[in-house]
C-alpha cells in the first residue's frame, strides 16, 4: 500500500509550495550555514519556482512555458521589493502571495517549531528545497499510515482490517495536508507515535510504550507544542473519565490494566505540564498571540483592545458556517460517528484513547477559528475515523462478548515463561496444537 501510494503521488510532485513552507525553509538554510540574506533569496526562488513547474509530469491544463516563466520572474521581483520591510525580523518579512507580513510576532510562531526545520533539513540538503521537502512529507505520511496498521493490529484486528486503516489514512482528506510541505504531516506522524505508545502501555508492553510516548511528546514539543499539549490533556481527560465511570459502575478493570491506565494518566499529565513550562521558558507565542494573529490579519493591523471578545465572535462565526457546510455534505460527521461507534463497541481503554484525537483536533480548531483553513487546523480529528471505522468492522466480525484478541506478548525478562501473558494484556484460551 505504501509503494502504491508513492507511485500515485509521484507524477504530481512536488506540488504546491506554501508561504508557511518558506518559514521553515529559511530556518533550514540558517541551520545549513547560509546567511540570512542568502537563505531568504533561496527561499524566494523555491517559492516562485512553483509558477514554472508545479509537478514533475502532469502540468495543469492550459500551461504555457513562457507565461509560467514570466509569472515566476514577477514573483521574485515582488518579493525582493519587500526585503527592506520588517527590519526587526530575523529572516525578513514573511513570504506570501500578497501583501507582506513584516511582524516579528508572526515569525516567532514558526520559530517556536524548530523541530520542523530540523526534520526537513536532511531532505533539503540532499535533494534541494522543493523535492527534499516533498520527500520528507512523503516519508512522514507513509510512517503515519504504517503506525495506524501497527496500532490496529495491537488492538487485535485482522491484518485486512488493519490495512483498511492504513488505506483510510492515505486516502481521506488527511492526504492533502499531510503531503504539503508544512508541519501537518510530521505532526500527524508524531500523534500516531504517541497513540501507539499509549496503546502499548495499556496492553502490557510498558517499556516500549513509555519509549514511544517519550519520543512522540518529546519531538512533538518542538514541532507544534500546542497540539501535543492538547493531545496530552485529551488523553488525560479520556482516561480519567473511563476510570471514573468504571469505578462508579462497580466494574473492576481487567487484572493489571488499571495500573497501566494510571501510569498513562500520569504520563499525560506530565506531558501537559512539560509542554506548558517549556513554552514559557523559551518565550514561545501563547494564547494571547494566537488571538491577536487571528484578529489583526497576521499582525498587519494594530492589536485589538478586546481579543477575547473578538475570538469568541470568530468562533461563533466559524462553527455556524462549518456546521452548515457539514450538514449539506455530512461525510465528515458520518465518518466521525462511525469511528466513535467503533470505539464504543470495542469498549476498552486502549480504544477509547482514539477519542482523544478528536478532542485534540477540535480544541485546536477552537483556538484557531480560521474559516480559510479549517480542515487543516482540526486535521488530528480525522484519526477517529481512520482508527475507529476499522474497529467498527472488527467488532461486527467478533462474536459478542468475546474479548479483543490482542497479540500475545513476548518475554520481557529472561525469567518469564514463553506462554506467560504480560500484565494488562487480554488473551484467549490456549488453542490445541
Automatic annotation (TrEMBL):
Q: What is this protein's name?
A: Glycosyltransferase RgtA/B/C/D-like domain-containing protein
Keyword Glycoprotein applies:
no
Annotated stretches, region: Disordered: 407-433
Report whether Zinc shows up as a keyword of the record. Answer: no
Segments traversing the membrane: 131-152, 159-179, 185-202, 209-225, 231-249, 261-282, 350-367, 379-397
Q: Which UniProt keywords apply?
A: Membrane, Transmembrane, Transmembrane helix
Signal peptide feature range: none
